Amino acid sequence: YSEDLNAYPENIYGLYHNMREQVVNYFNKNSTLNCLNLRVTNSYGYPLNNNKRAWNLAVNQFCKDAIQNGKIFIKSDGKPQKDFIHINDVTNALLTIINNRKYLTYNTFNISSGSTLTILDLVKLIKNICKDDFKIDVKIIHNIKLDSNILKKKNEKLMKVKNNRLKNLGFKVDVEIKDGLKHLLEKLNGKAEKES
Q1: DSSP 143
Q2: 102 contacts 32 by C-beta, under 8 angstroms
Q3: If 0-12 CB within 10 Å is exposed, 13-18 middle and 19+ buried, where does residue 4 land?
Q4: Hey, how many other C-beta atoms are within 10 angstroms of the C-beta on 195?
Q5: What is the pLDDT of residue 146?
Q6: 82-107 b/e with 16+ CB inside 10 Å = b?
Q7: Helix, strand or coil, per DSSP, at residue 145
Q8: What pLDDT does residue 2 have?
Q9: Pairing mode of beta strands 117-118, 81-82
Q10: What pLDDT sits at residue 124?
Q11: Beta carbons within 8 Å of 121's beta carbon, 6+ residues apart
């Protein structure tokens, strides 16, 4: 998925975002406002405050459940593909856009890592980090009945959310997914140890 592609929503959530982009484009065309469409993929990272909504982010919730309960609950077959980007990289992307605003020739940017994981691969990575770094054995629990072949499949082509426009402005991803997960899990594990 590149910034050049028009969005074709597959659900009400996507439709909402598509309508928002159309409003932004309308004001860009019909006013003196200079608006941007920032398509942020799935962000994650340890929240700076006690905002409970931050724990609704999939990665944050999976990590919290792993540390606090030793279990990760998946509400799908694990096949959905997502581009996960650390909140520090989201911040850096925004700063890159702000610092280059005089030179912008586009109004739509994908704020993405450019790498994709399935939900199942993500939770397996969390499970492995918990085992290797914290000696916590995490169980993955699917909330739906699975065909045993689903867990064996690896051949599906992963989608990619391209961020070429950001890269052309000098942006690069600083926090790889494994490092971001380790940091989040370390913070959660430290908090859990203090509460024990």
Answers
A1: S
A2: no
A3: exposed
A4: 7
A5: 58
A6: bbbbbbebbebbbebbeeeeeeeeeb
A7: coil
A8: 85
A9: antiparallel
A10: 97
A11: 78
Give 44-69 pLDDT, tens digit per residue: 999 888 778 888 889 999 999 999 99
Q: Can you list the pairs that 68-72 forms with residues at least 24 positions away whose Cβ atoms lie under 8 Å?
A: 68/188, 68/192, 70/136, 70/137, 70/138, 70/139, 71/138, 71/139, 71/140, 71/141, 72/123, 72/126, 72/127, 72/138, 72/139, 72/140, 72/141
Joined tokens for residue 74: 């998946």
Beta strands in the chain (DSSP E): 37-40, 42-44, 71-74, 81-82, 84-86, 108-111, 117-118, 139-142
With CA atoms as reference, report the closest residue to 112 among 60, 163, 54: 163
Low-confidence spans in the chain with pLDDT less than 50: none
What pLDDT, on a 0 to 100 scale, did the predictor assign at position 195? Answer: 59
pLDDT at 149: 56
Mean pLDDT, all residues of the chain: 89
The 3-state DSSP class for residue 63 equals helix
Q: In the prediction, which pLDDT does 155 show?
A: 54
- 174-192: string of b/e by CB count within 10 Å (b at 16+)? ebebeebbbbbbbebbeee
